[in-house]
Design a protein that fits this description.
Elements lengths: L1 H24 L6 H12 L3 E3 L4 E3 L3 E12 L8 E13 L7 E10 L2 E6 L37 E4 L2 E12 L4 E12 L2 E2 L4 E10 L4 E12 L5 E14 L7 E13 L4 E11 L2 E10 L6 E12 L13 H4 L20 E13 L2 E13 L2 E11 L2 E10 L6 E12 H9 L4 E14 L3 H7 L1 E14 L3 H12 L13 E14 L2 E10 L3 E10 L5 E9 L18 E8 L4 E5 L1 H23 L4
Parallel strand pairs: 5-7, 5-8, 6-8, 17-18
Antiparallel strand pairs: 1-3, 2-3, 3-4, 4-5, 4-6, 7-10, 8-9, 9-11, 11-12, 12-13, 13-14, 14-15, 15-16, 16-17, 18-19, 19-20, 20-21, 21-22, 22-23, 23-24, 24-25, 25-26, 26-27, 27-28, 28-29, 29-30
Length: 610
């Protein structure tokens, strides 16, 4: 027993002697020159440690150091790439023997990063890996998609973590821009496994065209088995300011909760609330990131959206130079959608109302599925102007040049209100039904118009054509056919009513062709055919009107003298400024043909014909 007693005393003495040597006699500052020389040898950079290193060995294993700088490469504007004011870390020693981690504090204060990119492409990070560094695959790294290990701790207790006064400056000399990011604070309160700990941050960013202020706080929990991370009720406030924003500022606030299951490799986010630019939203996001192609499922409920208020206001007056069209020298580049293959999506979005470019719609439903590089819009529907729009579409991004196909339908829409709000065109009135199906390749705007192949049908009931009074023009045509070539008295109301208008169309090579317009009204019957160029908006259309009733309307003659006579009209100009006119040439040709037939009949009778 005495032997065991003295043996334990001897072991304890050796431990105490080691502690006394490490904490009193051994000076870690003796290694500072070797550390500086090693960094110089490996990176070519100058490392400076201004303050003395101090550390403790028992009962806590701790280190404290400060005034650390690491230089930028030679020729850079800023001498130092990294500067640290102070680092403090203390871990209780004895609990480590029982797989218990007890950290009294972890503090990092005054971290400054000065990052630069030179015009020749050199950056502040060049050479940090060392000239002889080789990227060798680690035998410890698992294969892609492997699950994390089942390591666990008996206890983890952190008194607090504080990262304060961090500043990152990124200078890009190739674009002559500078970005400044500042983390004023990132703090985590008393932290233990299986318990929620308070988390708080405050962050600012100064960019060339805007500034960002973001701050948030919530609760963080790591499960006892280290397999689940939970952030609960994280409230974030963001303020973005810049000349390009409406009223120069945008406030965006959100409240969210997040659960990351490390073993299952899934992430679940609940967006309890979101508000920005008078837009309110809520939703959820679920991500399975363990596979080669992650699966993302998102649902979003959005309130009223007024995109017009988010667009920059137009100046009331423009200079002559700004009014003159300038040639766009930018060469359009085909968007590469092949990265769509890197993620699978299932998105469901519901929006109460949307207003954009003065176009008003309600009750939007969008259901999008993307799988293996093909995006399928299974449903896109909304209420608009007394009717409904519904569409489905597909975009194939697997090839260098994307292809697409779509099917779109309008039903029961007030076409006049729609055209006025959408294009400021007051040309057509009535209740419209419309469907079109098409396909094409390339997403470059000019190519979209050239490559689009589509066909469809339309029907407009109880409507009117605004900007032209066809009965009045027929009356003028009647006068001219009677020899009065000066007749040209205009009508007080430039409108032609009709009971129905139907037709079909096809689109190819940037031209919309309509071969079978048919319009019926109590006074006239109208048929038409022609084209509209969607590239330059030019119109080339011919109408033929025939009288089926009295041109005077109610109270007029039972049958007009022009009953059955076809009167030709021409539509030219552009889609935004159409021009209606009597087709005089066709009219005279028709008149000449009629007189010729009369002469033939007269001669036939005189020659003894019956």
């Amino acid at each position: 027993m005495k032997f065991l007693k003295w043996f334990l005393i001897s072991i304890l003495g050796l431990v105490l002697a080691l502690v006394v040597y490490v904490t009193v006699i051994f000076d870690p500052n003796d290694f500072k020159p070797q550390i500086v020389d090693l960094v110089k040898e490996q990176t070519g950079r100058e490392l400076a440690i201004g303050s003395d290193l101090s550390w403790t060995f028992f009962p806590t294993l701790g280190i404290k150091l400060g005034n650390i700088t690491l230089s930028n490469p030679e020729g850079f504007k800023n001498a130092s790439m990294v500067a640290v004011n102070q680092v403090v870390a203390e871990v209780s020693l004895m609990p480590l023997l029982k797989k218990e981690v007890e950290i009294s504090q972890l503090n990092l204060d005054g971290l400054t990063l000065m990052l630069e990119t030179q015009k020749d492409g050199r950056t502040s990070f060049d050479g940090l890996a060392g000239d002889n560094a080789k990227a060798e695959p680690s035998s410890q790294s698992g294969a892609e998609g492997s699950k994390p290990s089942g390591a666990s701790l008996a206890r983890l207790d952190i008194g607090g973590i504080a990262i304060t006064n961090t500043k990152i400056t990124n200078i890009d000399n190739t674009t002559q821009t500078e970005q400044v990011f500042a983390l004023k604070e990132l703090t985590l309160g008393r932290f233990q496994l299986g318990e929620f700990a308070p988390l708080k941050y405050q962050f600012t960013a100064t960019l060339p065209d805007m500034s960002v202020l973001s701050q948030g706080e919530g609760q963080l929990k790591v499960a006892q088995d280290l397999k689940t991370i939970t952030i609960n009720e994280f409230v974030v406030d963001n303020l973005v300011t810049g000349d390009g924003l409406p009223n120069g500022r945008l406030q965006a606030d959100l409240t969210t909760s997040l659960v990351v299951a490390l073993e299952k490799q899934t992430l679940s986010l609940v967006l309890s609330s979101f508000s920005a630019a008078n837009i309110e939203a809520s939703g959820s996001l679920n991500v399975a990131y363990g596979k080669k192609v992650p699966n993302v499922i998102a649902k979003l409920e959005v309130g009223d959206v007024d995109l017009d208020t988010m667009l920059p206001k137009q100046e009331g007056e423009q200079t002559e130079q700004s009014q003159q069209p300038q040639a766009d020298k930018t060469v359009a580049v085909e968007p590469d959608l092949r990265p769509m293959k890197s993620v699978n999506l299932d998105v469901d979005v519901r929006i109460k109302s949307v207003k954009v470019a003065n176009l008003k719609t309600q009750n939007w439903v969008m259901q999008l599925v993307m799988n293996e590089g093909i995006a399928n819009m299974k449903q896109l529907s909304a209420d608009l102007y007394g009717g409904k729009i519904s569409a489905s579409a597909q975009v194939d991004g697997r090839n260098k040049v994307a292809s697409y196909q779509f099917d779109k339908r309008l039903s029961g829409v007030d076409i006049r209100a729609l055209l006025i709000d959408m294009a400021e065109v007051d040309m057509l009135d009535g209740t419209a039904n419309f469907n079109v199906a098409g396909k094409g390749k390339s997403l470059i705007p000019d190519n979209l118009k050239k490559n689009l192949l589509a066909n469809g049908k339309f029907e407009i009931a109880d409507g009117a054509i605004h900007g032209v009074n066809i009965p009045q023009m027929i009356r003028q045509a009647k006068a001219k056919m009677g020899g009065d070539m000066t007749s040209g008295v205009g009508a007080t109301v430039q409108k032609t009513d009709f009971t129905s208008m139907t037709g079909s169309f096809n689109i190819a090579k940037g031209v919309v062709s309509n071969p079978d317009l048919d319009m019926a009204s109590p006074l006239i019957r109208l048929k038409g055919a022609g084209t509209a160029n969607i590239i330059n908006e030019a119109l080339d259309y011919r109408l033929t009107a025939s009288v089926v009733g009295s041109l005077e309307g109610q109270g007029g003659d039972k049958r007009d003298a022009l009953h059955g006579v076809e009167i030709p009209f021409a539509i030219s100009g552009t889609m935004s400024e159409p021009k209606f006119a009597l087709d005089t040439k066709a009219l005279l040709d028709s008149k000449l043909k009629e007189e010729t037939n009369k002469l033939k009949d007269s001669l036939f009778k005189k020659l003894g014909g019956s």
